[in-house]
Amino acid sequence: MKDVMILTGAGQIGMAIARRMGYGMKIVVGDRKPENAEAISKTMNDAGFDTVPVEMDLSSRESVLDLIAKAREYGEISMLVNAAGVSPSQAPIEAILKVDLYGTAVLLEEVGKVIKKGGVGVTISSQSGWRMPALTAEEDELLATVPTEELLDLPLLRPENIRDTLHAYQLAKRCNEKRVMAEAVKWGRRGARINDIAPGIIVTPLAIDEFNGPRGDFYKNMFAGCPAGRPGTADEVANVAELLMSEKGAFITGSTFLIDGGATSSYFYGPLKPQA
Ligand SMILES: NC(=O)c1ccc[n+]([C@@H]2O[C@H](COP(=O)([O-])OP(=O)(O)OC[C@H]3O[C@@H](n4cnc5c(N)ncnc54)[C@H](O)[C@@H]3O)[C@@H](O)[C@H]2O)c1
Questions:
Q1: Is residue 276 part of a domain?
Q2: How many domains does the chain have?
Q3: For residue 35, is it within any domain?
Q4: 117-149, pLDDT tens digit by residue?
């Protein structure tokens, strides 16, 4: 039996992290689109990795549990990479909340119950979560700790309180950060660690949908005007994941790492600051 990595989201960011950390493991590649899971799985198998594609839906607890059960057939789960998600131009408000917010919370909770001693996970949020004004201390605590099945009933997540899909995405990604903090406490009881990476614009199919979507000019301006002056790559996100998931990151858990070429800094204190 090998140790098992669960990869949810057979996209570019997920694959880059799985390639960096998953050699020698059984890698269970879950995605809502079977063709994505199969394509990433084949690319990795052709490069010497040992993967198996699985169709799954992050927004369903039953599907998450099925994925975990399938993964455990191969051995103990010692790594989780959650890079599944939908962006503001890809999905309506309800789907963004169900996948990016609720689904991520369920996955962290359920994997946290079975993760091998000393195991490690990362989930991918977004710089978007850093742009909203601060929530109240009480709202932060609710996002972190309310039982997963009650999350979408919180007043701040009710559809009438959400302006548009970008606002839903920001709330979902802020919730990911808070959830990772609360889960780190539980994962720690198993000697395991869980962290979050908040990328800026990384060239992937999801970002390309944004470039071609209603906020395309906004996104292109964002990477042109950030200190790095360019979008990032999935392999650069994997550099951060490698730190967090390797022994070098042994003292890091419950943290969110922003990797955005400085776009957030410029948004608050530089040329990307919105005009009043
Ligand atoms: N690319 C960027 O610029 C960027 C920036 C910030 C955050 N992110 C986040 O990174 C993560 C990965 O995105 P990516 O850029 O690699 O995109 P991607 O489109 O390459 O991959 C995302 C994958 O998630 C899958 N997916 C969507 N909904 C799902 C569901 N309900 N269940 C299972 N799988 C589902 C998609 O089918 C797709 O294969 C997402 O959470 C995204 O919000 C991306």
A1: no
A2: 1
A3: yes
A4: 999 999 999 999 999 999 999 999 999 999 999
